[in-house]
Amino acid sequence: MTHQIPLSDSVRADSAVSSGDGTHQIVHDLAFQTHVFVNVAFVGVPHTGDRQWVLVDAGIIGAAGSIEKAAAARFGENARPAAILLTHGHFDHVGVLKDLAQKWDAPIYAHPLELPYLDGRASYPPADPSVGGGLMARLSSLYPTGPVDVSPWLRPLPEDGSVPGLPGWRWLHTPGHSPGHVSFWRETDRTLIVGDAFVTTKAESAYEANFAQTPEMHGPPQYFTPDWVSAKASVAKLAALEPALVLAGHGHPLQGPEMREALHRLAQGFDTIAVPEQGRYVLDPAQADENGPTHIPPKI
Question: Model's pTM, two decimal places?
């Protein structure tokens, strides 16, 4: 069984590095910054000023200074975002969320099914360190699953699919890796920000691969995915969009026909490429509602 689809270096879309701010610009109004093993995205035309851009996800603990420096360099000193958008609320995507929301007095938007993990009500299902292999997977039982509480700034994403602060973009519900996981899609140039719905490096070994990542198409990180049926449907939904460019939460941004072919191969072969052969959630997915988990299978 294979758990990845190798790709050539030519599919990478991150060749341009912005001077001094640590970001990689992909298109004129989209850049990302990597914090050890996870990406955050800056969306907005540079130098447009206060409340004219958004941040997607909030990295790991300790990332606030780098994110603030990049934001100031790209959009102007003291330029605050119109919003902080979350693909989901796992620990490596909300590490400095409260710090940034408080400093910037910025609203935080997430899917309604993700809100319990962001307002202090609920914890995510436990990780499954038995799947995936690699350092990240082996350590996953130590990763925090407990809720953060950013309720003073927290808002649900609009029901109509629009994205606050981003005209021309839409959010898409892409559950599986978490109940309220979302991706962000701009149809005009077919740009897709996918969070962890799928990733472009072996996330289970991201620490080891950080300095020499090769482009690969993978399913969502196995150790933190509790619903493989929904994850499969989400990848199929994203592949059907025929994106021109994708930015995932882990790995390089990818573009072009080879990327699209690999994404279709992942969708079509998801059960053998992405799903572990065995694991806590493979045959018995976790379930959740608007208040948090309703079913967590026993540890095996």
Answer: 0.94
